[in-house]
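Moderator note: this is an archived Q&A kept for reference. The question asked for a predicted structure of one protein chain; the sequence and the answer are reproduced below.
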Amino acid sequence: MARQHRIQYPGAWYHVTHRGAGRQDIYKNDIDRQVFLKQIAETSERHTLEVHAFCLMTNHYHLLVRTPNANLSTAMRHLNSTYTQRFNRAHQTDGAVFKGRYAAQLVGEDDYLLSVVRYLHLNPARAGLESEIGKYRWSSLAAYLQLKRPPAWLDMTWINRRFSDVAQFRRFIQSGLGAVIEEKPEFDESKLILGSPEFCRDILSGAHGSIETQASLNSSTPKLDFNSISHAVMISARCTEQEVLKTKPGQRSIPRLVALSLASEFTDLSRSDLALIFGFESRRGVSTALQLVSQLKNQDTDVRHLYAEATRRLASESNPIGHLSTETGT
């Protein structure tokens, strides 16, 4: 499965979800859920992560967060790793609790944020886990409906300012259970970026400043063939195929490293396959090169720009409009 790319900038909003490894439960009991909420509190304080809504399901969780410091990856790594350690210790197990990387959907303007708020809070009702809206214990909805005291780390200011009173907010949430969604855009979990066409274009053009990766390929993008990747890098770097595939001893080829990274992420090629294609003596050489390019993407402007340009070109060829459009999803 291709890896999602983290788009990060100060003040960005995200709908974050993470599922259990092997579709297994990530909470075995209410004590686990309480531990997870404590980890959210710790993460929020340590990494200045604004948590505006949450919902803990059985085998996954949902968060609506804002990052004043453009540090989503650091914050989520802390949350997931510390919870995993505590879960394994409590249940005398080891190994992964979560499936791969978390999913982080970048969310744009107010209407789109509110669609996430409604979708997130209706998860228990749609799963049959609550008989009445707001009765589910493990989400922030009860706090917004003033049915229980909110945790100190829950930032309710932004959502509360969008509604005149609790009754209006309740009506908005309940409207999501009907056949027709009025006024606000319907939520679509399949999109990497949820926002207006203008917002999506701004993000992909880098208008919001420093980002970790300006890719628009996501986990639902079909696997690519290597020729497509090689061509995208050649066009983006204005180089030859030889520069993409081979390098002289002691020299570093940026196009080659970028092509290797993209091939590792977006194709079905094994590391043995990549070793043959790129002329490495073993899979270990591929692993070392991938570690290098991962570091360079954070440190070297040329590498970062070429990676972003090649990825945008690949995304365009893979019809990213389907991932970025704001039409109502099903």
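Archived answer notes: Residues 179-184, 209-221, 319-330 have pLDDT under 50 and may be disordered.
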